[in-house]
């Protein structure tokens, strides 16, 4: 094991950023914890419950989960990490039931404010339990202009807003190049919670989050949509091509009773990784600008 004393400030900063991106929110506890004793105590607590369940269902041959209630503790006592991990996530909910709950929550929201509150209280998607922030639409909902990204990045999750960090700085420059700024449009993400390690959301997670983003669109009623990133384009266009095959062409998105023109382009993070593609993104931005002008959403 390498001691922190052997690392340079830059190496130590990089290591801390790595842990933060991986979802680690604490490194040291205020008091020393005997993990070996903790583990043995957990095993001992499971044995009586397991034996009782085995006696009740001798033919099943399954190992039941412990059903013992956690011991009471003083409210001022800080729980150990193992206790926090065990008590934090909500009980597992079948994907189909979670999708139904998401639809009900989305459909009953009559405004973006109500929808934001409902999503923040929603706990049936596992992505929420590993994310710090719930990323919701921000900006001007009356503008008629909507930009939809893919999923929150680590910077978005830390800042609590979409398109943060270096990609956000580039995004602001992209908007300014066609006469826009983020406060004058409605900006949101397909997925409101950052997937751990920036992995792609699973099919079940996409199904659970779909009612939320579709309700945002239905309530905002945009006249034109710009989709940024491969995931966002595939999500709405229903195609499996890469962003290079999906970008630059106007298509229609049907949400509720609305049919909205949408165009896809590269995500700012893609442009930071491969700056040579900025010329492609610029062409897409010009096409988006022309559409906004034709709809009288942007002054000449």
TrEMBL record:
**Ranges where the record places region Disordered:** 47-94
Q: What SUPFAM superfamilies does its record include?
A: Uracil-DNA glycosylase-like
Reactions mediated catalytically: Hydrolyzes single-stranded DNA or mismatched double-stranded DNA and polynucleotides, releasing free uracil
Please state every residue range assigned to the domain named Uracil-DNA glycosylase-like. Answer: 136-286
Q: Which Pfam families is this protein grouped with?
A: UDG (PF03167)
InterPro entries, per this entry? UDG_Type-4/5 (IPR051536), Ura-DNA_glyco_family4 (IPR005273), Uracil-DNA_glycosylase-like (IPR005122), Uracil-DNA_glycosylase-like_sf (IPR036895)
Key word DNA damage present: yes
Q: Which UniProt keywords apply?
A: 4Fe-4S, DNA damage, DNA repair, Hydrolase, Iron, Iron-sulfur, Metal-binding
Q: Where are the transmembrane segments?
A: none
Q: What is its EC number?
A: 3.2.2.27
Q: Extract the signal peptide range.
A: none
Stored NCBIfam families: UDG_fam4
Of which family is this protein a member? Belongs to the uracil-DNA glycosylase (UDG) superfamily. Type 4 (UDGa) family.
Q: Any idea what this protein is called?
A: Type-4 uracil-DNA glycosylase
């Amino acid at each position: 094991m390498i001691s922190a004393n052997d690392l340079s400030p830059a190496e130590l900063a990089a290591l801390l950023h790595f842990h933060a991106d991986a979802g680690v929110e604490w490194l040291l506890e205020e008091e020393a914890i005997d993990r070996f004793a903790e583990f043995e105590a957990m095993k001992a607590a499971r044995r009586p419950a397991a034996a009782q369940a085995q006696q009740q269902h001798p033919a099943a041959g399954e190992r039941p989960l412990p059903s013992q209630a956690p011991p009471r503790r003083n409210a001022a006592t800080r729980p150990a990490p193992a206790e926090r991990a065990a008590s934090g996530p909500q009980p597992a909910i079948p994907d189909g039931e979670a999708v139904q709950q998401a639809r009900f929550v989305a459909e009953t929201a009559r405004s973006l404010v109500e929808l934001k509150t409902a999503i923040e209280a929603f706990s049936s998607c596992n992505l929420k339990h590993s994310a710090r922030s719930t990323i919701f639409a921000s900006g001007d909902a009356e503008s008629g202009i909507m930009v939809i990204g893919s999923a929150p990045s680590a910077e978005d999750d830390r800042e609590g807003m979409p398109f943060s960090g270096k990609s956000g700085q580039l995004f602001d420059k992209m908007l300014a190049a066609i006469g826009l700024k983020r406060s004058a449009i409605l900006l949101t993400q397909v997925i409101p919670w950052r997937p751990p390690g920036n992995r792609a959301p699973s099919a079940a997670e996409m199904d659970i989050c779909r009612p939320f983003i579709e309700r945002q669109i239905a309530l905002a009623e945009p006249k034109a949509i710009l989709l940024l990133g491969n995931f966002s384009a595939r999500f709405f266009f229903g195609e499996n091509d890469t962003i290079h095959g999906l970008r630059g062409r106007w298509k229609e998105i049907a949400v509720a009773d609305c049919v909205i023109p949408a165009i896809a382009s590269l995500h700012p993070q893609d442009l930071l990784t491969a700056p040579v593609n900025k010329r492609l993104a610029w062409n897409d931005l010009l096409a988006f600008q022309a559409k906004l002008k034709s709809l009288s959403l942007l002054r000449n």
